[in-house]
Amino acid sequence: MVNANHGSGGDADSNGLTRRQWLALGSSAAISGLAGCGGNNPDEDVTLSNNPSGENTGGEGSPVTTELNIRAPVSWQPSQANINPFTDTKNTEFWMDYIWWESPVYPNANGKPIYWLADNIELKGGGCEVHLKLKENYTWWDGTPVTAQDLHTAQRINDYRVNMGPDQTDDSWEVVDEYTLKNVLSGPANPSLQKSAYLSPVVKHDYFKSWLQKYEDAGGENGIKKVTKELQEHTITLEDLTEKGLGCGMWKPTQLSPTMAAHEKYEDHPRAGWTNLKTFNWHLISEKQKAIQALNTGKLDMGDKTITQAQSNDRVEVFNRFGTSSIVKLSMNWNNEHLARRSVRRAIAYLLDYEELVKVIKTTQGLNYKPRPTVTGMSTKAANQWVGENFQNRLINYGSKSRPEKAEQVLENAGYSKSGGVWSGPNGSKVNGLTYLTPPWNIYETIGNYVSPKLDKFGFKNKLVIPSSSGFWKRWTDTHDFDMVNWFSGTDHPANAYTTVGVSGIGKYDEIAVTSKKNGSDCKVNRTAPELEKPRSNKLNHPIRPKYPKQVGTVGNGGSKQTLFPIKWGNIMSQTQSEDEVKKFAKKLMWYTNWQVPHIGFYDETRAFWGNTDKFDFPTGKVDGHPNAEATKQEHFSNSMEFFAKGHISAKTK
Predict the structure, then answer these.
(1) What angle do CA 277, 283, 285 make, to 5 degrees?
(2) Number of structural domains, the chain?
(3) Which of 379, 377, 449 has the alpha carbon at shortest distance from 606?
(4) Looking at CB atoms within 10 Å, which of 201, 204, 313, 522 has the fewest?
(5) At a CB cut-off of 8 Å and minimum separation 6, what does 290 contact?
(6) What are residue 531's DSSP bridge partners?
(7) Are β-strands 561-563 and 279-284 bridged in parallel, bridged antiparallel, or unpaired?
(8) Residue 17: pLDDT band with limits 50, 70, 90
């Protein structure tokens, strides 16, 4: 679910992507793009207050209410919505799908799989075969069971719609039995990544089988395109969803108006007994000021935005906060002669005061983030998991507080001098007129308004540009008309943190790699380095295979060198079955990022949620004694929508 922090776009067109690209971009959308509001560090041992046995969790007695009121931050007409899951023109946000439908899994804020439809996901055959075993107690709203055939139909239609047919894809799908689906991959997949990858919502086979038959009878590319066009134009309304039993989520839309979409609980859902709530009212409020007014007048019972206002409101309080694996960072375009020099990028890393920045964000946004201790390319939580603190202690320490004397020293050692308040390079060229681009999202604007004058005062003259959303995406994805830009990374797994699919990772390098077709059917990790069409990336002008010191912590260029192989190492990390091998290459890439400074992380993201705790029991950081709480603990590190959509919120009882 995308919030005000991030947009939902990515670096690449989704059509025709490889499995590794889907994994990387999927992680960015589901984890980075979904990063929520701020808070403190999480207690990793917390569990949720839920009840898989089906008993009411609201305690004995009658609930004080059976309704929950929340905000949908969208401008939307529910009665006119086309929710056809296979059209590119539907007028709903993608996160809405997960209220009405179920997916096998969904990654939580740290990339760990939350099991919904899936009961178990097992990798076999060296990682080239994935068996998805579905739970047997989920039903469509007409009472028919959700089966492997439903999931298979969704996958096959997407094969035709996106790739012109199953024979044009790398993977294949097979129904093993009523509740088991087999996904045969073209190459091995790393278990930690692949188990979180099956997040597409299921669709009802009985409804969509006619469309699948049309594809199978299409008779070629032109026929497939014709069917796709017809499918894209097909309308499914929220009324259709209910009347034809096309949904399988816990909440069914009942009353629709321009300002609210009311839902009632589907009592046959496996988790219906987890909550004593019967209705949730989805108030459609796109404007922030109206949302604040709704909060202050008691119209809303919970939320994850307007944190500042919630903290000063006597009726609600922050009930949950935890860290995520996402970081917000400054990316630099090496087409600029100064930013192409490592000394300038390091000077910026030394100069910025990350502790002060998070204080500014807390003052203006009410969010409490954790500043970055040094440049690593990963969140602190993820870095501790994959490389350990001892390795990180050997890295170059840029510090979390401003060190202007170090910044000046680095520049002077590289031949820079300062005159008239502006730094000039060895050739006399001034660091002047840098274009500093930031997305038009609240927190990113705050970052830009803090960082830009700091750089300017230091002697790196720049202009902060905050375009419209469309203007930002054009510069970011098309023209690359910027020198610096605020962006983000989902770093739950090293293959995502240092992905070469887009600049959400280390850089967008895959597009200039010459890929070769796999020979044979052996399930083996691809350990070859691809040929390159050019030595530098199209976006940001990064060198693809530079040499860098072997010795971790080396500040200069001295000592023995090693060559960076980012695409090769990324392939290995996304395919190997060995956790130790992932850690080995994570260390190589983290050290390169620390030494080269292609990007500078500002802070680790956190999420926070507020609610009316006098009326409701919300998922909190307190450990309870529920016997099945451990099985659903990962759902604690999720989003507010999942909290109520999956039965983790109940009303207090009288």
Answers:
(1) 150
(2) 1
(3) 379
(4) 522
(5) none
(6) 514
(7) unpaired
(8) very low
